Amino acid sequence: TASYGFLGLSAILGILTLILFAIKDRRLVGEERVKKIEYSIREALKINELSLIVGLSLIIIGNFLGAIWANESWGRYWGWDPKETWTAVSIAVYAAIVHLKYIKDWYSPFKMAVLSVLGYFSILMTYFGVNYYLSGLHSYATGDPFPIPVWVYWALGVLTLLIILAFRNRKLEEN
């Protein structure tokens, strides 16, 4: 779960970057401030990418160590338990995000910020979804699942609005 911290930091940096994109309007803040905001976006993106790489590395190591432990405990490395499966899904999601940086025609700081936020939903499902909503060896769910709190829907709405506002100013000036 140490990887969750780095991937969570990446999501927070993605949200911060989206906020910077949203407020980067020359008419509102002026040309000089836009240059400072773009510099901050680039720096936040560098830290975000490092956090993504560390988080991905840790989740892969954790998954391998979990497989070794499972073999010692149950005599099998992989059992398609929901936690194992969702961890594999999270690894695939973050491996794709990290590697999309190297597709030159596709890469942009805006897309990386959005993906670092959206990718964290796989981690939330790995933790909360598996632990409280699905049944398996890693589950704490008993009886009926908890209803999803209303604030989750509000947070999704605010995040969607932030992405839409940031989309307007998604281009950065070339250095």
Describe the structure.
The chain is elongated and about 65 Å long. It starts with a helix and ends in an 8-residue tail after the last helix. The model has no long low-confidence stretch (mean pLDDT 90). With 175 residues, the chain is an all-alpha fold. The chain has seven helices and no strands. It has helices at 2-23, 26-29, 31-74, 82-100, 109-118, 120-133, 150-167. It has one domain (2-167).
Keyword list:
7 helices, elongated, 175 residues
Short description:
The chain is mainly α and 175 residues long. The protein is 75% helix and 0% strand. The chain contains seven helices and no strands.
Cα shape: elongated
Overall average pLDDT? 90
**Main sheet specs:** none
Structural class: mainly alpha
List how many beta strands DSSP finds.
0
Q: What portion of residues is helical?
A: over 70%
Uncertain runs with pLDDT below 50, 5 residues or more? Answer: none
Spell the H/E element sequence. Answer: HHHHHHH
Per DSSP, what share of the residues sits in E-state strands of 2 or more residues?
under 5%
Amino- and carboxy-terminal Cα gap: 38 Å
Number of domains: 1
* Quaternary state of the chains: single chain
Count of alpha and pi helical runs: 7
